Structure formats: C-alpha cells, structure tokens
C-alpha cells in the first residue's frame, strides 16, 4: 500500500461543518502523517490485496463540493430499496454527504430521529459518534474520521418500537474520489428498529472507507441488513461494530456482491448479561473480485450468546477470505458462542480461505467453530442431472439451495427474492448466459 499525499490536515479542515465535527476530524488528521499503513504481512491483513492499494489514485471531497449537492442530485434507491417495502424513514447519502432525509410523522412525534450526522438540529450527535468505532481503531478508521463529511444518524428513544424499516442509501459515484460513509444507529433501552444499509457505486474508480456503529441499549432489539453492490472498480473497506447491552439482541446480516476489493470488518461486543448477537452473511465473487471478511464475536459479560453463519461462493478468478475470532473473556461465564463459515469454489482459478479462531478465558462456556471450502458435491449434481436437469440449471439450484438458509433468516424477508436473482445472475455468468 502506497501514498497518502492528498489526505492532509488542510484538506480535512476545508470540509467545514459544525465545530465539534471539525475538531474530531482535525484530531484524526493530525495522526495521518505518522500512521502505520497496513500490509499483507500482518496477520489481520493476511491473504488480502491491501498491498495493491495506492491512495494517491484518490482524493477527498473539497469544501465547495460538500456544499454543491442538493436533494435534486439524490440517486434513486434501485430495486432493493423498492423491494424493501414500506419504510419508516429514508436517508440518501452521496459520496459521504447526506442529500435527503425523511421520517414518518408518527415516528417523529414519538421522538425518532432520522437525519444527517453533520446537520442534525437539536441532537447531540457528538455524544454518540465514535462510541463503537473508537474502541477498535485502525489506519482506515483514522482516515475515515479525518474526512467524515456527514453520514446517517438514526436515534430511537427508550421504549419506542419502529415497525417499518429505516432505509439508508449510500451512493458513491465520483470518479477518482474517496468517500467516507457513516451510519450511526442508537437504539435506547427497550426500543426496537430495523435498518437497511445499501451501499452502491457505478463503474468508476472510487475508494469507500466506511464505518457503521450500532449501539443497542439494554433490552433493545436491532435488526440490521447491509447490502453491498459496488461497481467493478470500487475499493471498499468498512468497519461495522456493535455494542449490545444487557438482555438486548442484535440480528445483523450482510450481503456482499460487488466491488473490485471489498473488505468488511464485522465486530460485535456483548457488554451486558444476557446479550445476544446473530451475525449472518452471503457473499458471491466473480471475475477478479476479492471479498474479504474479518469478524469478532467478543463476549464481555456472563450468559451471553452469539451465533455466526457466513456463506460464500467464488467463480472465475475471484477470491474470498474469511477470518473470524470468538473471544470469551474471563467474565463471560455460562456463555454460548458458535461460528460457521461455508464456501463453494465453482471454477478452477477461484479460491477461498477460511480461518476460524477461538480465544477462551472463561471455564464455563460452550463454544464451537466450523469451516469448509470446496466445490459443488458431485453426488448432488449427478442426482439432479439424472432427473433430466441440465448441468447448468443443476448448478444454479445447488448454489441457491446453499444460500437459502441465510436468505430465509434475513431481517427484511421481502428482499430475499431480489437477492436470489442477483445470485442467479452471478451463476449464469459462469455459463455465459
């Protein structure tokens, strides 16, 4: 990895915004000159393509560009936004800047806030921003903090139940730009909310350096789904980190289909007794894509539970990496933690790496992990072909069946159909359809 000459303290200062945000950016920008950028020789970046990244190919937004975009420039939500069905609120973010936000009147009357991080009025966003991400910093979170121009803020007050999803559309379309999308969800005690984050870009050279923070208060319940459909020349690096309180639950799902190199660092810290975290993912790489996942299930309280299921497929010369850690701290007695990663390699030249890890300090826990990497089972193919199904259709059916147990568990069931079609198209590409 080389270069960072365009990402200076002066460029950060030029972004403007509220004083508290400018000060946060400047503190981060001051660290950039001395920061140690990652390389593939580090264990946490093992098997990655990070050494290919040249930051000098990208530039941050200017202050003039920040102020030039209005609601009329907001991109459409695409098929997935429509198929999410009725929504309780919407935030549209373009190149890291919020260009539109709305929330149902009845939710607003209950105190639900849906707005831009840099433009919320009457909200102490600075109180919450960084609550999760500051606990797990790396070079990319520092760069993100130095150039954070805005982002989505969702705040659900104590005891409020939001029945319809809040939809956030992050669109990155500036050629040669770097954008820094941020989603901050605060669900206070005994509240409930579902959030859909959609990340997309066209076929442009773009660097996406994102952060998602999910603050789940005591006895709160958050359902979160991220869908990544970046263009074929987008590099993406996103930290998604959740802090889950006592007797609270997080159901987090990720779908990754796009990008040239797309990395998701998904972390869940269970801070209160009885906290639960379910982490799901579906990913499918083709052409020369690389999809890279690093996960952490961190149990810091007794009687907590986490369950992770990540399933992926690769074809052509695409590659995937999964590296996951279950950490059971000494105070996490009587906790349960499970981790499963399954991978299909659909063609010669493709490859998948799977590296599960355990770190157990407690002595009264239940914990397991499992991983597999391999081709489609020949017996399954033979069974379908012997009943008159063509080899191509048989392969599609097996791949769709492989992903089905994740699709049926998505927090927004209406999206499963669109995602099945996306997977179907990927498999079809392998056969020249």
Provide a descriptive summary of the structure in words.
The protein is an alpha/beta fold. It has one domain. The chain is about 20% helix and about 40% strand. Strand 1 and strand 2 (about 95-105) form a beta hairpin. Helix 2 (about 20-30) crosses helix 7 (about 140-145), helix 8 packs across helix 9 and helix 9 packs antiparallel against helix 10. The protein is globular and about 70 Å long.
Please tag this protein with its features.
ten-stranded mixed beta sheet, 20% helix
Number of domains: 1
Backbone shape:
globular
Rg, Cα atoms, Å = 21 Å
First-last Cα distance: 37 Å
Layout of SSEs?
Blueprint: H1 9-13, H2 19-32, H3 63-68, H4 78-83, E1 89-94, E2 97-103, H5 105-109, E3 113-116, H6 125-128, H7 139-146, E4 152-156, E5 166-171, E6 177-179, E7 182-187, E8 192-200, E9 206-216, E10 221-229, E11 234-244, E12 249-256, E13 261-270, E14 276-285, E15 290-299, E16 305-314, E17 319-328, E18 336-345, E19 351-360, E20 366-374, H8 378-385, H9 391-407, H10 416-430
Parallel strand pairs: 1-5, 4-7, 5-8, 6-9, 7-9, 8-10, 9-11, 10-12, 11-13, 12-14, 13-15, 14-16, 15-17, 16-18, 17-19, 18-20
Antiparallel strand pairs: 1-2, 3-4
Helix pairs in contact: 2-7, 8-9, 9-10
Brief overview, please?
The protein has 433 residues and is an alpha/beta fold. It has helices at 9-13, 19-32, 63-68, 78-83, 105-109, 125-128, 139-146, 378-385, 391-407, 416-430, and strands at residues 89-94, 97-103, 113-116, 152-156, 166-171, 177-179, 182-187, 192-200, 206-216, 221-229, 234-244, 249-256, 261-270, 276-285, 290-299, 305-314, 319-328, 336-345, 351-360, 366-374.
């Amino acid at each position: 990895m080389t270069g960072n000459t365009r990402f200076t303290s002066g460029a950060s200062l030029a972004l403007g915004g509220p004083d508290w945000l400018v000060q946060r950016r400047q503190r981060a920008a001051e660290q950039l000159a001395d920061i140690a950028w990652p390389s593939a020789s580090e264990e946490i970046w093992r098997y990655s393509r990070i050494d290919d990244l040249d930051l000098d190919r990208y530039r941050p937004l200017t202050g003039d560009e920040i102020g030039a975009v209005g609601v009329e420039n907001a991109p459409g939500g695409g098929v997935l936004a429509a198929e999410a069905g009725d929504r309780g609120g919407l935030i549209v973010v373009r190149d890291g800047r919020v260009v539109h936000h709305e929330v149902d009147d009845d939710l607003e009357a209950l105190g639900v806030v849906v707005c831009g991080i840099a433009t919320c009025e009457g909200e102490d966003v600075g109180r919450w921003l960084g609550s999760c991400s500051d606990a797990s910093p790396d070079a990319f979170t520092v760069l993100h903090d130095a150039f954070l121009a805005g982002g989505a803020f969702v705040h659900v007050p104590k005891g409020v139940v939001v029945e319809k999803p809040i939809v956030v559309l992050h669109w990155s379309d500036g050629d040669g730009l770097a954008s820094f999308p941020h989603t901050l969800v605060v669900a206070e005690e005994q509240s409930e909310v579902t959030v859909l984050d959609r990340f997309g870009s066209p076929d442009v050279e773009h660097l996406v350096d994102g952060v998602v923070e999910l603050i789940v208060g005591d006895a709160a319940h958050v359902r979160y789904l991220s869908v990544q459909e970046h263009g074929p020349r987008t590099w993406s690096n996103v930290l998604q980190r959740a802090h889950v309180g006592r007797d609270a639950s997080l159901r987090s799902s990720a779908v990754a289909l796009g990008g040239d190199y797309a990395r998701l660092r998904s972390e869940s810290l269970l801070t209160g007794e009885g906290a639960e975290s379910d982490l799901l993912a579906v990913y499918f790489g083709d052409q020369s894509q690389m999809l890279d996942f690093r996960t952490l299930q961190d149990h810091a309280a007794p009687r907590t539970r986490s369950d992770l299921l990540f399933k992926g497929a690769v074809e052509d010369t695409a590659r995937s990496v999964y590296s996951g850690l279950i950490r059971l701290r000494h105070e996490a007695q009587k906790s349960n933690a499970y981790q499963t990663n399954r991978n299909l390699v659909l063609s010669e030249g493709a490859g998948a790496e799977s590296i599960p890890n355990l770190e157990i300090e407690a002595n009264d826990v239940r914990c397991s992990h499992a991983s597999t990497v391999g081709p489609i089972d020949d017996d399954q193919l033979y069974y379908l072909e012997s009943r008159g199904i063509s080899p191509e259709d048989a392969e599609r059916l097996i791949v769709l069946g492989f992903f089905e147990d994740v699709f049926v568990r998505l927090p927004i069931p209406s999206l499963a159909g669109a995602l099945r079609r996306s997977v179907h198209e990927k498999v079809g590409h392998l056969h020249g359809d």
